[in-house]
Each structure stands twice: as structure tokens, then as C-alpha cells.
Write a structure and sequence with these properties.
This protein has 320 residues and is an alpha+beta fold. 28% of the residues lie in helices and 28% in strands. The chain has a 9-stranded antiparallel sheet with strand order 1-2-3-4-5-8-9-12-13, with helices on one face. A 4-stranded antiparallel sheet has the order 14-7-6-15, with no helix packed on it. Strands 10-11 form a two-stranded antiparallel ribbon.
């Protein structure tokens, strides 16, 4: 595949490699790490992959140009960001601005996934039956009528095993599935191992997963180790706010209390129409919110090397 043929030589290019016998591709640039799969005729899929590569080229630089503002708290009515990805991030977190502290960085992974997926689909000229862009566990989906994905929900990235799976048919309107939690790539104010959210876009689901994961907590519990975010990462958008570093083994009652706090928030977001559903996981205890197709699994270990919080297991009708 020839990708980014028109890109100027001085622009930093993403890393590219084929996966699974040229079925999927892996694209990366700095902290952006994408697994992409498209379903359609081979020539269409190759064209789509080239479009995804072209869109990722320079995307990180676009974000870096507005990074100081992306790390600042968002306030109700705010609209200050200019870039397409940055604006998507801002729009996704604005519904939570009146509830407390949040920055556009809460939706960065999902927004990148949405943006690259849009380029992928456009590059294929509408000829893909299904596709996904997985950005480190935050996944943007493309589904055409009659198709579906089945998503496996992973407990935590450092101990990868499935705790549930859920079916996502095209007719559901769900086009994003994202995960947040204390053991993930980003800091969390809560103690959840994983909060997976299904939403209309990956960006919207990403913001909601952050909010719900922050709510799964035992505030003031001295057993939980927390440190200021900027002591761990000086340029963190969370600044001096305490983030979770270690959660000891908890009694069932404590897990129930923490999960209930998150469940209340998730229920409210479902009622408000901001998300379609959520799955909350903490040390073997699970709460499902508006996921009628979610099926609990016995612990299923994922192959070594899996790093994403959410793994797409299989698909349905319409494979190209």
C-alpha cells in the first residue's frame, strides 16, 4: 500500500505496519496508537487504510498547537478551540462542565479514533460494510444496516481477562465504546478497574467513561493511595488533584458502595441521553447499566500482548 504520497517530506510520518495477514493495520504517532480494521473489497480496504494514514499524519501536531488550552478546565458555554479534533474534544466534555472540573483531554483518545474513522470511511467512498479504529481501547465504530460487532469487555490492562461481552448492532446507534479506570493509560480520580461506556461517538463515550470512573470511589478511605497528578506527571491537566495510585483488596461491602456511586452517575447519563449504556468493574464485582445484551463471562484470559481495555472479539453479518 502506498500511503500519504502527497505529504511533504518534512512532516513527521506515523509508523505503519500490517497485522493479521494484512487484514488490519497498526498506526502510531507518539502517544496515539491505533489498531484499524475495515471490511470490504480488498482494493477499497487498501484505499481506506491509505486515507486513515493520511489523516493521522500531522494530527498530533494539530493537537500540540492547542495543548495549553486543551489542558485547561472547560466552563459552560465555552467554545475556544479551533482545530477539528480539539473542537470535537471540547464539545464532548462541555455537557459536564457545570458538574465540576473537566478538561478536553478527557475525550482525546475517543476524538482521535472518531476523526481517523471518518477519514477511513470517506476514503472508501461508502463501500465498507464495517470498520473500527481502536485507539488504545477507545474504539470508534462504522456499521451499515444489518451488521454488528460483538465487544469483549476487559477487566484491566495489566491483568487482561474478559468479564463480559455485549452485542452492538447497527440499529442501536452506538458508534463508540471506550474504557476508563485507575489502572489505565490516564490518571483517574476513582478506583474502578474499568468503566466501559457505549455511546453515539467514541468522543462522547470517552468523556462519559472518565466521569463515571471518577465517581466509582470510596472518598477519604485512608487505605487507598493517592498522589497529586502533577507530582507524577508535571504537565498533567489534573494539576494538583489527587489521583489513584493503589487500591488494596476491598471487602464486598466496600466494592458495592463504590460501584453504586458510579452506577448512579451512569444511570443519570443514560436517562439524559448522553450514553447508551455502561459496564462498571471493580475487583471482580460488576454493575451493568442499560446493557440488555451484556452477557457475563467466567474469567477468560486474553492472549499475551493484549493492551487495550476493550477488545472487539468478533462481528456479524456483512463482513466484506
Amino acid at each position: 500500500m502506498t500511503a500519504a504520497g502527497s505529504v511533504s517530506a518534512h512532516i513527521r510520518l506515523p509508523q505503519f505496519r500490517w497485522l493479521d495477514g494484512r487484514r488490519r493495520i497498526h498506526l502510531s504517532d507518539g502517544p496515539i496508537d491505533l489498531i484499524i480494521e475495515a471490511y470490504g473489497p480488498p482494493d477499497v480496504v487498501e484505499r481506506a487504510y491509505a486515507a486513515a494514514y493520511d489523516r493521522l499524519t500531522g494530527l498530533l501536531d494539530e493537537l500540540c498547537a492547542e495543548l495549553p488550552q486543551l489542558r485547561r478546565q472547560v466552563f459552560p458555554g465555552q467554545k475556544v478551540l479551533r482545530g477539528s479534533v480539539a473542537s470535537r474534544m471540547e464539545a464532548s466534555v462541555l455537557p459536564y462542565a457545570s458538574d465540576g472540573f473537566i478538561t478536553p483531554m478527557a475525550a482525546v483518545a475517543g476524538s482521535v479514533a472518531d476523526t481517523v474513522l471518518a477519514a477511513l470511511v470517506a476514503g472508501a467512498g461508502g463501500e465498507l460494510s464495517r470498520a473500527f479504529v481502536n485507539n488504545g481501547g477507545d474504539i470508534a465504530l462504522h456499521l451499515t444496516p444489518g451488521t454488528r460487532f460483538v465487544a469483549g469487555l476487559v477487566t484491566r490492562p495489566d491483568q487482561p481477562s474478559l468479564f463480559a461481552r455485549t452485542e452492538i448492532p447497527a440499529e442501536s446507534g452506538i458508534r463508540g465504546i471506550t474504557t476508563s479506570g485507575a489502572p489505565g493509560r490516564s490518571f483517574s480520580l476513582g478506583i474502578a478497574d474499568a468503566v466501559t461506556v457505549l455511546g453515539a461517538t467514541a468522543a462522547e463515550a470517552d468523556a462519559a467513561a472518565t466521569v463515571i470512573a471518577n465517581a466509582v470511589d470510596l472518598p477519604g478511605d485512608p487505605r487507598i493511595l493517592r498522589r497529586p497528578a502533577n507530582a507524577l506527571q508535571p504537565d498533567s491537566d489534573l494539576e494538583e488533584r489527587l489521583v489513584t495510585c493503589h487500591v488494596p483488596s476491598l471487602a464486598e461491602q466496600d466494592k458495592a458502595i463504590a460501584l453504586e456511586r458510579g452506577r448512579v452517575v451512569a444511570n443519570r447519563l443514560v436517562s439524559d441521553g448522553r450514553i447508551s449504556g455502561a459496564a462498571l468493574y471493580l475487583q471482580g464485582a460488576t454493575r451493568f447499566v442499560s446493557l440488555p445484551l451484556a452477557l457475563a463471562l467466567s474469567s477468560t484470559v486474553i492472549e499475551e500482548g493484549t493492551t487495550s481495555n476493550t477488545l472487539l472479539i468478533t462481528g456479524g453479518a456483512g463482513d466484506g
